[in-house]
Amino acid sequence: MKVTEPNTSTVMPETSPPSLKLWQHNHILDLDNFTKDEIELVFETSNAMKEVLKREIKKVPTLRGKTLATLFCEPSTRTRASFELAAKNLSADVINLDAIKSSVIKGESLIDTLRTLQAMGADIIVIRHSQSGAPYLAARHLNVSIINAGDGWHAHPTQALLDLYTIHHHLGQLNGLKVVIIGDIMHSRVAHSNIWGMSIMGAEVILCAPASLLPYGLNDFITNCHLPPITVEPKLDIALKGADAIMPLRLQKERQQTNLLPSLREYIQLYQLNQERLSLAKSHALVLHPGPVNEGIEIAPEVAYGAQSVIEEQVTNGLAIRMALLYLIVGGKR
Amino acid sequence: MLLISGGHLIDPSQGLNKVGDLLVTEDKISWIGDKGTAPVQQGFSILDASRMVVCPGFIDLHSHLREPGFEDKETIATGTQAAARGGFATICCMANTEPPIDTRAVVDYVKTKARVAGLVRVLPIGCITKGRKGEELAEMAELAEAGVVAFSDDGDPVINSSLMRHALEYSRVFSLPIIDHCEDRTLSQDGVINEGWVSTRLGLKGIPAASEEAMVARDLALAQLTGAKLHIAHATTEGSVELIRHAKEKGVSVTAEVTPHHLTLTEERVIGNQLIPKTYHLSATAYDANAKVNPPLRTKKDIAALIKGLKEGIIDAIATDHAPHTLADKMCEFDLAAFGISGLETAFGCLMSLVHNGELDLVTLISKLTFEPARIVRNKYEELGSLKIGSPADITLFDPDEEWIVDSNNFASKGKNTPFNGCQFKGKVMATIASGKIVYQDNLIKVKGN
Question: What is the ipTM of this complex?
Answer without folding.
Answer: 0.91
